[in-house]
Amino acid sequence: MRLVSLEEARRIAVRAQLLDGSATGVLDTVRRLGFLQLDPISTVAPPQQLVLWSRLGPFDTAELDRLLWDERKLFEWNAFVWPIEDLPLVRARMRQRARSKHYKWERDSDEFLKANAAFKRFLLRELERNGPMLSREIEHHAPPRFDERHRWWGSRQVALMLMILHGRGVVAVAGRRGGQRLWDLAERWYPESETISGREADKLRAEQRFRALGVRKTPKGWEAHPDVSAAEVPERVTLLSPFDRLIHDRDRAEALFDFHYRLEMFVPKAKREYGYYVLPLLAGDRIVGRAEPRFDRNTKTLEVLGEWDDTSRLHEPLESLATWLGAERIERRE
Known about the structure:
Blueprint (H helix, E strand, L loop, with lengths): L2 E2 L1 H11 L9 H8 L2 E2 L9 H10 L4 H10 L3 E4 L2 E4 L3 H13 L4 H12 L1 H14 L2 E2 H7 L15 H11 L3 E7 L2 E6 H4 L8 H16 L1 E4 L2 E4 L12 E3 L10 H8 L21 E5 L2 E11 L4 E9 L5 H11 L3 E4 L2
Parallel strand pairs: 13-14
Antiparallel strand pairs: 1-9, 2-4, 3-4, 5-7, 6-7, 8-9, 10-11, 11-12, 12-13
């Protein structure tokens, strides 16, 4: 066990997450981080893109799409983007999800598939003949009887079927059209890969996570991964997505950086301490402040709706962000 001081732990955490300026490209960054989380909220930019910008600075967002849909060096599953090398680990999780009855939603999924076995066969035949397809294109061909409301998913039963089959590795996201997922048979989209047990996959994922995070808290103190340096971190300044893995575990972030952070977009406006979509400001190995930028795509204006604590160097990431987004001006409120 390699135990380090809190100061070293901060540096290691930042370096492990490639927030020290060492990131070199989209693919290598995703491989190092392990995955990118997808989310529809894009007040500034989609979080999967914002996480990459925090590390790479202005980059070509089309490269991420090329890696996903053309070169297939990345793939989408369960609202995350994964390196294709991790497909055996993800497939182990797909099999676990198909077998597990631990959670009520897993038991409900089994019940839904059994009750709608005929529609499952119909959907898979549609994808085999016509895929990749949008969900609404499948709904257009769905049997009339399938329009009945389901007790825990309403009338969106085609989406529910796709979600369950996707989680179990039967269908795959094979592209995007206008931001909407294109569905196809998993056997036609995913490449062949080795089969590993769920236990081995869990072990490998835990090691990957430790390597990507750099440090973990133990009863004896901060344990550091042996492959990550504790050297001084350059005084680079950037903004972090709320989904960034450096701060995703809020308790860990508070213990490491003495920084209390919560995403308040679901908090009533009158009860918010800061703002709707506030981003932490990282300077070197310290989180020194926070700001709420918003990109108005109509006026091409990068607005800063609020800023808190030490934002004396906020102009640095704002200028980079504006360049990347194609903003023509930056407005900071007094």
